[in-house]
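RETRY 2/3 - previous attempt timed out on the joint model. Re-submitting the same 1588-residue input unchanged.
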Amino acid sequence: MPEPMSLTDREAEALDAQWRALNYLSACQLYLRANPLLREPLRPEHIKPRLLGHWGTCPGLTLVHTHLNRLISERGQRAMGVWGPGHGAAAVLAGAWLDGSYQELRPDVQRDGAGMERLFADFSQPGGVPSHTSPSVPGSIQEGGELGYALAHAYGAAFDNPDLLVCAVVGDGEAETGPLATSWHANKFLDPVHDGAVLPVLHLNGYKIANPTVLARLPEDELGALMRGYGYEPLFVTAEQDTSPLEAHRALAAAFDRALERIGAIQRAARSGAVEAAGRPHWPMVVLRTPKGWSGPRELDGEPVEGTWRSHQVPLPGVRDDPERLRQLEEWLRSYRPEELFDQDGRPRPEVLECVPEGDLRLGAVPEANGGRLLRELPLPPLESCAVPVERPGAGAHEPTRALGELLRGLLAATEDRRDFRLFGPDETDSNHLSAVYAASDRGWQAGLLGTDEHLGRHGRVLEVLSEHLCQGWLEGYVLTGRNGLFASYEAFANLVASMAAQHVKWVHSAREVSWRRPVAALNYVLTSHAWRQDHNGFSHQDPGFIDHVLSKSPDVVRVYLPPDTNTLLCVADHALRTRDTVNVVVAGKHPCFDWLDLDQARAHCARGVGVWGWAGTERGDGPDVVLACAGDVPTQETLAAASLLREWLPQLAVRVVNVVDIARLMSPTEHPHGLSDAEFDTVFTRDRPVIFAYHGYPWLVHRLTYSRAVHGQLAVRGYRESGSTTTPFDMVVRNGMDRYHLVMDVIDRTPGLGARAASVRQRAADLRERHREYVLAHGADMPEVTDWRWPGR
Amino acid sequence: MPEPMSLTDREAEALDAQWRALNYLSACQLYLRANPLLREPLRPEHIKPRLLGHWGTCPGLTLVHTHLNRLISERGQRAMGVWGPGHGAAAVLAGAWLDGSYQELRPDVQRDGAGMERLFADFSQPGGVPSHTSPSVPGSIQEGGELGYALAHAYGAAFDNPDLLVCAVVGDGEAETGPLATSWHANKFLDPVHDGAVLPVLHLNGYKIANPTVLARLPEDELGALMRGYGYEPLFVTAEQDTSPLEAHRALAAAFDRALERIGAIQRAARSGAVEAAGRPHWPMVVLRTPKGWSGPRELDGEPVEGTWRSHQVPLPGVRDDPERLRQLEEWLRSYRPEELFDQDGRPRPEVLECVPEGDLRLGAVPEANGGRLLRELPLPPLESCAVPVERPGAGAHEPTRALGELLRGLLAATEDRRDFRLFGPDETDSNHLSAVYAASDRGWQAGLLGTDEHLGRHGRVLEVLSEHLCQGWLEGYVLTGRNGLFASYEAFANLVASMAAQHVKWVHSAREVSWRRPVAALNYVLTSHAWRQDHNGFSHQDPGFIDHVLSKSPDVVRVYLPPDTNTLLCVADHALRTRDTVNVVVAGKHPCFDWLDLDQARAHCARGVGVWGWAGTERGDGPDVVLACAGDVPTQETLAAASLLREWLPQLAVRVVNVVDIARLMSPTEHPHGLSDAEFDTVFTRDRPVIFAYHGYPWLVHRLTYSRAVHGQLAVRGYRESGSTTTPFDMVVRNGMDRYHLVMDVIDRTPGLGARAASVRQRAADLRERHREYVLAHGADMPEVTDWRWPGR
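RETRY 2/3 succeeded.
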């Protein structure tokens, strides 16, 4: 590998030519719909009617792009970019156009004058390419809208990609977000043996939309201390407004060279086994300070533009109507000397392409940024290896997540060499009863190790950090680069990443519409320690709203499963891990839960997603008097308890028990691909019988999913009604009106013609309910008749 | 003020007595329901049936509590605690019991043996006090469940409280979260002249639930660099397992003394005007390292407990059933020598109380932690000062948020001396067209200032940082300590703090049930730059789901308003700023929006929350044929455009136009206090006419709110259907089926008996819709007939 050395003048000039070309291409995307090469003086009709885009960040992005291209082409280094300031999509598109990857994916946008015109006209226009990086931008794995995830995505991309360099450009705006602020610590989880390298470039251009940025206004020693405190070796590259670009190229090239040498040294030491002695490596990072909108218009109407927030979006507005501004624009664009950069046909001249890589090494063509190209089927262990035996429904009980832990253990073992599956979680793998996985993998950890540590190691593929944002960002980066994973979380705290999840759904939904994007693995959540079983915690830990949130997003992507027992959880997890381009939310308990279905029954039930549990009901062939429906483990238990009370107390009543695993089955097929047709729905739920639905989450979700069904007017839903505290499990269902006694009362209240017997049964249920409340307050524990309850069989 | 000096032996011993007392009280809360003073040997029946609580963090919290008490009582320093590891509620409760504040608020729990027994029995039991800090814990302003907000809350509490010291205990688990990681930078926004001081105590006990913590495993120089990089002067206090507590007391006392001197010096310099020259102050912070569960059981079954994750929750489980463990528990509890700490009646002995403050200085009694005690009515300017003139509906247009900016400017000016109102936002005040506020207040900023900066200053009360988490956390801290504020955000990015908002709702809901908590000001959101007008951005910026999220939380707290124009926004904002114990979400546009109502009409409309706009419809006295309902500014515009097309095209059709401002009016009064009765609802919406509802957000929300209404089966809702991109405003409504033409088609499709004329009208609407799509693709802009459209009046 070359030593860091000064560039020759010729090298610096070639880099500068590339940078100018990228800046020209970026700026023109904001403005031009014709005359792309400025062959004639600019006229208003060459200008787009609506000027949209973000110029301010572009020159920094193009600078990094140029220098990454140099590293790649000089060293054959495999690399990808994660473009934090993705609202500067014009810059990333410029790179893909210039390296020729764009024309391969978009044959209508060739690397010539006509293609250039199309590139410009398409940008940020209705029906065209969005103004932020999106799936339609080659070489990108993140939307450039919601800031904060660049570094987490970069680490996710680098895990288990030992030869890859992931360069993450972090804007100084983004750096103020919480998720980004904690992402710097991801270096304590990067295994230098099995993982690739992340090279963060903190790009200080000084301003956000209208404010200075915090980090840009720190003294350099303070910022340096911060980066060293985060565990990096910072390399500072600073360009002021008057710095000559050639000088900046020299400085940045030297910094990148130094960074690559340091990375190489770290990796060689680790891979030769020497690092264990040397301690955790301090990876390099670059602090790149350049003026915002560098090389753009210096001033407008006497106010400074370059180097200030005024260059954030369109630095010269109104150019179509103001000849003086049109002249300024032309002067600006011509300052890049396009005639030196592009030939007669608009093709880049050789000097411009001198340091631009070719083939799959191009940043626009790197396979990891279109991860589906690399995705392989997972070697999932047979479910028989972890299923629980079920002689008859309700005879036994298991902890569902413990069996899931066995499944994941098998999967981690089977992928030990492939290393394309990981488990992520915020310090809860053990608490969530998934600790079987430690038999196949340690928890990955690069910070200090102590003799008392258990299941912590340098090469583990279970990652735990108390930041749901990091877990989510890592998993997104891991999945989008062609691998597989699962995020297990306390149910309530999935809400911390609700917004990230929504952005990922948007990404996947949009990617499905981009012809060249290959499907990626599902992003899988297992939400456990759920609202009903927060025995050791309180109100803050009780929130089932993540389901509602996810179900409001693109139905082609989102799936929600509520397996009622252990074997159904295994079937659902097995399915989820095989799906593509989806976001799967699986809600499952960690506490002992009755086993209702054996493995074959579970498979059949999960395949249907919803089904009548004939063994649990009391129908006699002519349809039910009432339907007891349930979704979720605790609601299923209460529903079966209610069914067994009704069988005992009102044996004449024909009760149907319906269990729902795949909640989207409730929706109309016009609203979700999993939706049951009205005919199927009516067959299961009837058109006109009372339906008492015990649901895991907020009850109105079921109303919103079923509002167009015939039976909707007959539907009473019980669920979590935001009543919680530190209390017993049964008291939780009582507080929220979802307990067995309340369900019995609902049945009696809603089923007409039950007669006098029913009234006394209702009173009995009401009394038991009341007695329970008193018992709990007196004893601080649930009544034995609920804790010891068993499904009586038939 | 005293110099930092060594404690005398007596002082150290008094502190240690206090610490032991607090530890004893904490540990006993986890275990005992009787025999509180260990007057007899422990027997199983003294032990609670369910052992719940978190011991591991308690000894650290009690240590900080003890030393804060010393500072307060020695110096008369006003201080409050923000207890990040709030799952250690037992420790905070112990403090409030010991300082006598608890018995004042809970007369049933006196500071004696009987009260002690009640304190223990009540803890973490059904119907008792939750195991996490919650509103029932005196001196606390945050739930100890969802981690990450301690430091942001602390800064929010310190703003505009110049004499207050806010000590924020940050657990090393919490420190891994994103929100906490960026909260350190809040020191760039703390004005040493007008604000109080924040003293962060980073408590490294080394472990989370089951993992080591990142920060505890860093070398000390790296952690020190991190803290200096964050802009602090760290003071390290380290106690190992074998450190004598007296030594630890001496070290921590010295660190706290040093910190207070430094804080005093910073404040004196700033308040004398000397700081402007000296530059941004580097505030002190303390890194306190102690073993997890320090002073608790050393071992269990041969495994280390103290100093490891095994002491996280209940360090000795199963004590009721295992005599040996019961013996271990007794030995542990007796190790605090309770007989030296409490007298015969269970009252704390004088030595224990020597450094415990009195009156409002007590941490359990500090008025700021029960902020409603300090809350004053806001001097809101008369709305006439910022209302817009409206000659007739739709004649003019204004930018709603610009007028709101005028209202806020007036409020900021009127509170210039009181300093009890602040505006928070993530770098968007300008972008959200609220910049009028700068006439009354700068943006507060303590980092570097440049000559080119505008509206940035040391003493501003508008705070902008690119972290919604910080904005939210600051506002929560500010409001909970008795002040008022507003958070203005891009609509989509409110989702970033969905989880924080839910926790705040839980806090307020629970606080309403605590007799001694006084009502606090509303937490107000203005969500603008909303889903329909993301002209400059794309899909990532289009998400109206925050409304759905908030409406799923406690209805006694949450309110959502969708003002259709400028004057209604002013009325809604004025109302929101006067409310107590609520979370108000106001969604409003920043782009020019037709003025429909003058100020008086707006007041009347907002007072009702929903109303028939007779001037917009074509009823002739015998009820409508169809109802066009709308909520939100863009839906209102499209609805009125549809109404005017129908008037022109189908003049015989009796159309009623209904506008909804307060979305909870749609709900049943059993589900939300603002819900209309069925009779009122039917009067407005009819029981049986088709209702075409154009709604700002996800359409199913309206279904879920109205599912029990008579007219529900006749309801068709149009809204945002997750179809977005960078495109024109009208194309957005077309893509989502909420455009005027689509609404006309809906009316025709759903109103029976319209005859042949209607079919041709429908075709005309469909043609116009199609023509628009083509126009947009060809011109990159909306058709003039929609951009130039004006309400024709009557």
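Residues 356 and 474 of chain B are 29 Å apart (CA to CA). Closing ticket.
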